[in-house]
């Protein structure tokens, strides 16, 4: 007598995803894109970086101008602008634009108020490091010994 074993019928292989799985994945991707996209679409980070780069250019310009004139140049920052001028308050022309070297920054960025006076050697006086905050994330440091500006 031959004994036959009963084999179960082959189950069909499922292919694809269920509707619930697709909806969950789409919701997760939507939440991630909202969080990440908002960081890229807000311009304040880019604006802060642009202001910081332009302010470093202004600091270096003031330093070079002081070295060529034997001193007497200062950079003054306020919450909404920065100015390169002579220490007696008279204007310095802006090499990139017409008029005096006064720059108003965008409204979504702010600066800490500071005054840096450069001597004929390009060193800030008094001879101490100076920090200028740009927005909420960048800090420009002007080295007291050399006048080197960086962030």
Structure commentary:
This protein starts with 18 loop residues before the first helix and ends with a strand. It has one domain: minor pseudopilin epsh fold. The chain is built from 2 helices and 8 strands. Strand 4 and strand 5 form a beta hairpin. By secondary structure, the chain is of the alpha+beta class. It has helices at 19-41, 44-69, and strands spanning 71-77, 81-86, 102-104, 114-119, 124-125, 130-134, 138-142, 149-150.
Question: Could you give the topology of this structure?
Answer:
Blueprint lengths: L18 H23 L2 H26 L1 E7 L3 E6 L15 E3 L9 E6 L4 E2 L4 E5 L3 E5 L6 E2 L1
Antiparallel strand pairs: 1-2, 1-4, 2-3, 4-5, 6-7, 7-8
The main sheet orders its strands as 3-2-1-4-5
**Number of DSSP helical runs:** 2
Uncertain regions spanning at least 5 consecutive residues: none
Overall spatial form: rod-shaped
Number of strands: 8
| Relative strand content | 15-25%
Spatial gap, N to C terminus: 91 Å
Largest sheet: 5 strands, antiparallel
CATH architecture: 3-Layer(bab) Sandwich
- CATH C-level class is Alpha Beta
């Amino acid at each position: 007598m031959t004994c036959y074993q009963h084999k179960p019928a082959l189950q069909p292989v499922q292919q694809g995803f269920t509707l619930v799985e697709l909806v969950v994945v789409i919701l997760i991707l939507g939440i991630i894109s909202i969080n990440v996209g908002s960081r890229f679409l807000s311009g304040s980070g880019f604006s802060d970086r642009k202001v910081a780069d332009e302010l470093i250019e202004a600091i270096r310009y003031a330093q070079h101008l002081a070295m060529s004139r034997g001193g007497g140049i200062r950079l003054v920052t306020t919450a909404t602008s920065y100015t390169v001028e002579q220490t007696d308050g008279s204007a310095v022309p802006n090499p990139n634009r017409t008029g005096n070297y006064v720059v108003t920054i965008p409204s979504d960025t702010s600066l800490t108020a500071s005054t840096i006076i450069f001597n004929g050697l390009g060193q800030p006086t008094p001879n101490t490091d100076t920090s200028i905050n740009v927005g909420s994330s960048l800090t420009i440091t002007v080295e007291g010994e050399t006048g080197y500006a960086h962030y």
